[in-house]
Amino acid sequence: MAKGNRILVWDGALRLFHWSTVLLVVAMWWSAENHMMDWHRRMGMILVGLVTFRLAWGLLGPRTARFTSWQLGPGAMLGYLKSLKHGVHKPSFGHNPIGTLSVIAMLAALCVQLGTGLFAVDVDGLESGPLSTLVSFEAGRQAAEIHEVSFNILVALIGLHVAAVAVYLIFFKDNLVRPMVTGRRASEDFGDVPLSDAKLSWLRLAIAVAVALAAMWGISNAG
């Protein structure tokens, strides 16, 4: 990739969300496997806050964080796939069409995982999510079963995501991990594409954080 002036593509809040989610998903799997359900629930609530923040940030954040920047049209997808077929990879200022689908799939899987976990009840009725008192035991058990299946789907999606990152690195010499750490890419990567500033707006950040905290508080007090 070109090595010239480096510009900010991913804002700090989005990068913090990304890596915090990675760590929390691993930690929640570990806590469940070791039957540390108190910690599992605590980390689940933090993850609820993070996902709520990401949804709010998709409306309030800089250009590359916003849902409106996602390339979802069939024309964009087909054009991008054709370019890859011919061995041509043109970096996108933000998520490329395939990356967009990956983000949508993983966010959806996370929402299902968290949503079912909030209502889940174990076989003995001893371990349960914070909102399990709002549903019947049968509904709680069904949520628990979906919770288990959705985690396997989430793991599969994460595996595909990691594999795609490896493919871009090996075949296109494009390191997608470094920009998600530093937030920056070489400006030459984007050619004549008009670029916008990815710097944080502290007011909008405060609003998104407040929405996330309100969601956590509401769930914690609803049961």
From TrEMBL:
Keyword Ligase belongs to the record: no
One Gene Ontology cellular component annotation held by this UniProt entry: plasma membrane
The keyword Cytoplasm is assigned to this record: no
Residues in Cytochrome b561 bacterial/Ni-hydrogenase domain copies: 9-183
GO biological process: respiratory electron transport chain
Residue ranges crossing the lipid bilayer per the database entry: 12-31, 43-60, 98-121, 151-171, 202-220
Subcellular location: Cell membrane
Pfam families, per database record: Ni_hydr_CYTB (PF01292)
GO molecular function per UniProt: electron transfer activity; heme binding
Protein's membrane topology: Multi-pass membrane protein
Cited PANTHER family: BLL0597 PROTEIN (PTHR30485:SF2), NI/FE-HYDROGENASE 1 B-TYPE CYTOCHROME SUBUNIT (PTHR30485)
Name of this chain's protein: Ni/Fe-hydrogenase 1 b-type cytochrome subunit
Organism annotation: Hyphomonas jannaschiana VP2
